[in-house]
Amino acid sequence: MSKTIQIRIKDKRGGRFIIDDVVLNGYGEALGPYGIAVYITLCRHANMQSQQCWPSQQTIAKKTGMSVRQVKNMVDRCENLGLITREIAEGKYTIYTLLEPENKHLDKALHSMHPCTTDPSPLHSVQDTPAPGADKGTKEGTKEGTNILMSCKEIYKHFCERFNKNPNTYRLSEARKRKLKKRLTEFTAEEIKTAITNASNDDFYSGGGNRGWSADLDYITRNYENVEKLLNLIPRKGGKRGQYQSSNQPKKGKYDDVVER
Q: What's the DSSP call for residue 44?
């Protein structure tokens, strides 16, 4: 006897919100997965007429499964890309306004995200064909890819200096490049370098503990949580692990989570 399987068709009459195709098609790569998640959340809260909303960063973090620091970074990225503006209302809460995407903002933001070059060439002039020797499937043959690679090398050099590593033996391997590139979608190069500096100044992370264990670049860049943890680290001496300062989180506003429709 055949078994009847019931399926439920999506109700397309309501409960939906709109995101412009150009945001994913043109800005998706610059936003990254976390930036897209934050932008989608703002779209979900936005009023259909005014295109404004005011969810707190804690609310965005809860709905996206991110930390408040990461939400702050991604909101900054959305603003740099010209996708949103924000203003403080009555000194209590932030009002976000969704803007019409423009390519000029995208070109400028891509350059500011990877400032290791003085040539702010527009996005449309970048060639898709990788340079000889560049890995297929990567962007190391493009200007953007070159900038990312330069940021990776800058972070790697900083780590070697802080942890007294010999570059001839402690290499910037492809696996380490991949981790650094991933973290650069979540943090700025300066933030990652600050995390490295904090770890090097702490006895526990720099080999002064009972076991003599020392954090390496693989550990520091293993995931988002490790970088964020070390960014908030207050280094200590005497072989003890430092304390972690709590992230500065804005207070919940009076009108937080209000959604106008």
A: H
Answer whether residue 234 shows pLDDT above 60.
Answer: yes
Q: What angle do CA 26, 32, 33 make, to 5 degrees?
A: 115
3-class SS string, 120-145: CCCHHHCCCCCCCCCCCCCCCCCHHH
pLDDT at 176 (0 to 100): 92
User: Is pLDDT larger for residue 165 or for residue 25?
Assistant: 165
Residue with tokens 């890995």: 135
Average pLDDT, the chain: 77
Domain ranges of the chain: 21-105, 138-244
Cβ(36)–Cβ(74) below 8 Å: no
Q: Considering only the C-alpha atoms of the chain, give the largest distance between any 2 of them, rounded to a whole number of Å.
A: 74
- Name, in order, each residue with C-beta under 8 angstroms of 212's C-beta and a sequence gap of 6 or more: none
- From residue 189, alpha-carbon distances to 98, 113, 152, 261 in Å are 27, 9, 8, 39
User: What is the model's pLDDT at position 212?
Assistant: 84
CATH architecture of the domain with residue range 21-105:
Orthogonal Bundle (1.10)
